[in-house]
Amino acid sequence: METKTNFSLVFLVVSGIFMVIFSVPAKADDERKETNMTVYFHDYSSGGPNSTDLPVLGFPGKLWTFTQFGTLYVVDDLVTEGPELTSETVGRGQGTYVIASLDGLNAYVSFSLVFTNVAYNGSTIQILGNSDQFKAVREYSVASGTGEFRYATGYVTFETIFLDQSTSYSILRVNVSARHY
Ligand SMILES: *[C@@H]1O[C@H](CO)[C@@H](O)[C@H](O)[C@H]1NC(C)=O
Ligand SMILES: *[C@@H]1O[C@H](CO)[C@@H](O)[C@H](O)[C@H]1NC(C)=O
Ligand SMILES: *[C@@H]1O[C@H](CO)[C@@H](O)[C@H](O)[C@H]1NC(C)=O
Ligand SMILES: *[C@@H]1O[C@H](CO)[C@@H](O)[C@H](O)[C@H]1NC(C)=O
C-alpha cells in the first residue's frame, strides 16, 4: 500500500516536471516582441548609370525582362523613413529576384533589409517569398533576421505608390510586421 502511494506520488511529481519543461518553449514564444514598421524603397530600373535594379542573367535568346521566365535581377535600393528621397535613411534593400513562373507573372524574391539607422544599425531582416508582381499588394514572408531581429518571423507587404515611367523611378511602400526577441 505504502509503496503504491509513493509510486503515484512519484508519477505526479515526474509528470509535473515534464509539464513545466514542455511548457517553457511555448511561454518563451509568447514573450517575443512585435515590431511593425513602414519604410520606403527607392527603385531605379532604367538601365542607366544610377540604376539600383538590374537584370544580370536570363535565358540565351530571350529578352531579359521582368515578364520573361528565368530572368534574374539584382537590387540595391535606398530605404527611407518617409516616401521622400530626402527623408531619413533607414538602410538598403539588397538582394535578388527571379521571374519564377512560366507565364512571367510571379517573382521569387530574396531581399535583406540592411539597417544603417540609429535604432537598428547593423541588423538585418530577411525577406523571402513568391508573389504575383502585378498585384497592388505583394506579400512575402519575414524568414529570419540578425542583430535586433534574431529569430524574426512575420510578413511584409510591398506596394508601388509612385512610378515615373520616363525615368523608371518607383517608390515602394514596405510594411514589415515581425516577431523577434
Ligand atoms: C502590428 O500590426 C499587426 C497587424 O496590423 C497588429 O495586429 C498588431 O497589433 C501590431 N503590433 C504592434 C506592436 O503595434
Ligand atoms: C546619377 O547620379 C549622379 C550623382 O547623384 C547625378 O549627378 C547624375 O545626374 C545621375 N544620372 C542620371 C542619369 O540620373
Ligand atoms: C553604424 O555602425 C557603423 C559601424 O559600426 C558606424 O560606422 C556608423 O556610424 C553607425 N551608424 C549610425 C547611424 O549609428
Ligand atoms: C501599410 O501601412 C500604411 C500605414 O503606415 C497603411 O496606410 C497601409 O494601408 C499599409 N498597407 C498594407 C498593404 O497593409
From TrEMBL:
Keywords: Apoplast, Secreted, Signal. InterPro entries: Allene_oxi_cyc_Dirigent, Dirigent. It is found in: Secreted, Extracellular space, Apoplast. GO terms for biological process: phenylpropanoid biosynthetic process. Its main location: secreted. Residues 1-28 form the signal peptide. It comes from the Eukaryota. Gene3D superfamilies: Allene oxide cyclase-like (2.40.480.10). GO terms for cellular component: apoplast. Homodimer. Belongs to the plant dirigent protein family. Dirigent proteins impart stereoselectivity on the phenoxy radical-coupling reaction, yielding optically active lignans from two molecules of coniferyl alcohol in the biosynthesis of lignans, flavonolignans, and alkaloids and thus plays a central role in plant secondary metabolism. This is Dirigent protein. The gene is LOC110415556.
